Amino acid sequence: MSQIQSSEDLDRVCDVLDKLTLDSLLLIEEKVRLTLNAENAMCGGEAHLAKARYIMGQNSVSALQLPTENSAEFTASAKVYPNEDEKLFGEASYELHLTGTAEGQTVQDPVRWFGVLVPQNLHSARGMFRQALQWAVQTVNIQKQLRATMEKIVELNEVKTRILAK
């Protein structure tokens, strides 16, 4: 009787392991796809920055326009927050929030660091970098799911080993 029960337990554990393995492969595929999308967006953003620098001149689009420690305080135009409502395997997922003007805070458009009349390429670069940031946040969430799935696989392999040892 116990031999039959352990055989059924082994079958159930193996079925769950198979499903988790397929899930992990799908998560890996999704992570690779998101990583490639983020990389392509970053490359495109850099190309648009290079075009804007060519159009405006090499000193008009450079690190000299970026804020320094002595610059006025400002709030980032995009922030990443944990989403406690949507938990992935017990951990909070992350989401990107584009911030607007809040009371007492100055949200500064980074494109304005380079002047008022800037080429369209600078606006395109900003959009591509924002998209890359969104894909990076999604990649982190997928990575967390993948890590949790791999932990479950390790636990079930230990259970499988104990069942086989009986």
Automatic annotation (TrEMBL):
One of its GO terms (biological process) is vacuolar proton-transporting V-type ATPase complex assembly. One of its GO terms (molecular function) is unfolded protein binding. InterPro entries: Vma22/CCDC115 (IPR040357). PANTHER family: COILED-COIL DOMAIN-CONTAINING PROTEIN 115. This is Vacuolar ATPase assembly protein VMA22. It comes from Exocentrus adspersus. The lineage of its organism: Eukaryota, Metazoa, Ecdysozoa, Arthropoda, Hexapoda.
